[in-house]
């Protein structure tokens, strides 16, 4: 079981590099993603006359932290639904008979972008305070499944804080499997030139924590924004906090 009081046992100064997930760790955009997934999947199920609703439990079990298309596949598989894979260019709005895995994922992304542009995004104050308190010379990077990471970071005013962004676009270009595989986090450590043992991973999703644990990083901090402290600990978090401001 992870130590839920990370402030007493974890010292950021003991590590050289810090790899942060974006949605749910840096910004509350995980809430935006949850809303977009719920709207997209609810519309999809209704179009097929499926009465069992999409729920938050589906989000945490099948979607949270995964690359977009992986999340679509995982949820559809949980309901015994098979769709053609499609192409990255498939439009989000397709007639039901022409729906594809990638078309559904693109529909969800369109909803996310619409919500971000209409409502804006602000970073978690506790996370900003934590970034401000990190030792001088700390090496920082973002490792996110999102393909909109740069846009979100710029909107939050934090883009310049990070040396590298390993997002869904980088993963696709480099052929890196997404979370819960460790490859994107390991790629972030390589870009910084820091050994994983000297690196901390910060994650709010069970799949992301599994990614950090599988990469043998020096510490994996689970940030509980709803996934559950016990679930994050069981996935491999070395410490669990409700907000990064708890770490001094």
TrEMBL record:
**Molecular-function GO terms, alphabetical:** hydrolase activity; metal ion binding
* Top-level taxon: Bacteria
Q: Which UniProt keywords apply?
A: Carbohydrate metabolism, Hydrolase, Magnesium, Metal-binding
- Where are the membrane-spanning stretches? none
Q: Does the keyword Magnesium apply?
A: yes
Q: Which cofactor does it need?
A: Mg(2+)
InterPro entries in UniProt: Beta-PGM-like, HAD-like_sf, HAD-SF_hydro_IA, HAD_sf, PGP-like_dom2
**Annotated spans, Disordered:** 84-103
The entry assigns this protein to a family as follows: Belongs to the HAD-like hydrolase superfamily. CbbY/CbbZ/Gph/YieH family.
- Supply the name of the protein: HAD-IA family hydrolase
- What organism is this sequence from? Brachybacterium massiliense
């Amino acid at each position: 079981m992870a130590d839920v009081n990370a402030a007493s046992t974890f010292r950021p100064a003991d590590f050289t590099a810090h790899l942060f997930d974006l949605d749910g760790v840096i910004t509350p955009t995980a809430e935006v993603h949850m809303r977009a997934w719920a709207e997209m999947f609810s519309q999809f199920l209704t179009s097929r006359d499926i009465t069992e609703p999409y729920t938050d439990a589906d989000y945490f079990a099948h979607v949270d932290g995964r690359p977009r298309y992986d999340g679509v596949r995982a949820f559809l598989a949980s309901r015994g639904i098979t769709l053609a894979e499609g192409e990255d260019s498939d439009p989000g709005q397709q007639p039901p008979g022409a729906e594809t895995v990638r078309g559904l994922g693109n529909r969800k992304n369109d909803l996310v972008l619409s919500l971000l542009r209409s409502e804006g995004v602000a970073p978690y104050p506790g996370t900003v305070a934590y970034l401000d308190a990190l030792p001088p010379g700390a090496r920082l990077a973002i490792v996110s499944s999102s393909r909109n990471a740069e846009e979100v970071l710029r909107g939050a005013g934090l883009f310049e804080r990070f040396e590298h962004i390993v997002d869904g676009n980088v993963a696709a270009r480099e052929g890196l499997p997404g979370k819960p595989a460790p490859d994107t986090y390991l790629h972030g450590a390589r870009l910084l030139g820091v050994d994983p043992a000297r690196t901390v991973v910060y994650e709010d999703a069970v799949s992301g924590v599994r990614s950090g644990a599988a990469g043998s990083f020096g510490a994996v901090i689970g940030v509980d924004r709803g996934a559950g402290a016990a679930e994050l600990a069981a996935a491999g978090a070395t410490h669990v906090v409700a907000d990064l401001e708890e770490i001094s």
